[in-house]
Automatic annotation (TrEMBL):
Subcellular location, record wording: Cell inner membrane
Keywords assigned: Cell inner membrane, Cell membrane, Membrane, Methylation, Transmembrane, Transmembrane helix
Protein name: Type II secretion system protein J
Keyword tRNA-binding set for record: no
InterPro entries: N_methyl_site, Pilin-like, T2SS_protein-GspJ, T2SS_protein_J
């Protein structure tokens, strides 16, 4: 009697098909995890860039010299004090800062009072819209500097990247008693 042991061709085909299905399911799962991680990473980078830009604007607004904040043609200009001087160079403690939208990029231009050197810093890319407003208790919210009275708050509304509209209201020096 000739007894053979082993697998039939049909059993091998079924086993290979099952392993192929398991491999395909594993690959799809891995691919979806990688895609989700990439999307999350990009979203995190966008949020960090926006937080960094708003943080710079907040720092400048908090250190603005009273009565120096001006709005004109969608540009914000202010004089700030407490300018960092890590090298202890002889220079003014005040700095003139201007924010402007050029194309789809938000720029911060700064120079020390009494100096000719201009520093330019790109804060945000892919800016679709940007608006500034100042608040005065007598005039309310306004978009163009009207008088010499010091505003109490600055409003920033920006649409960039995947963020439809981000609104920040920042208190200016002199707003708190």
């Amino acid at each position: 009697m000739n007894e053979q042991s082993g697998f039939t061709l049909l059993e091998l085909v079924i086993a290979i098909a099952l392993f192929a299905l398991l491999g395909l399911a594993g690959w799809r799962l891995f691919d979806s995890v990688v895609r989700t991680q990439q999307g999350t990473g990009q979203h995190e980078r966008d949020i960090r860039g926006l937080q960094r830009a708003v943080g710079v604007i907040e720092r400048d607004a908090w250190q603005a010299v009273a009565g120096s904040v001006e709005l004109a043609s969608g540009r914000l200009q202010l004089h700030r004090s407490h300018w960092r001087n890590p090298l202890d160079l002889p220079r003014s403690e005040r700095q003139v800062v201007q924010y402007r939208l050029e194309g789809a990029a938000l720029w911060r231009d700064s120079r020390g009072e009494g100096t000719a050197g201009l520093q330019q810093q790109k804060l945000l890319d892919d800016v679709r819209s940007l608006s500034w407003r100042l608040f005065d208790p007598e005039q309310g919210w306004y978009t163009e500097t009207r008088n010499e009275q010091s505003p109490l708050a600055l409003e920033l509304v920006v649409s960039t990247g995947r963020f439809e509209q981000i609104r920040r209201v920042l208190l200016l020096p002199g707003a708190l008693p």
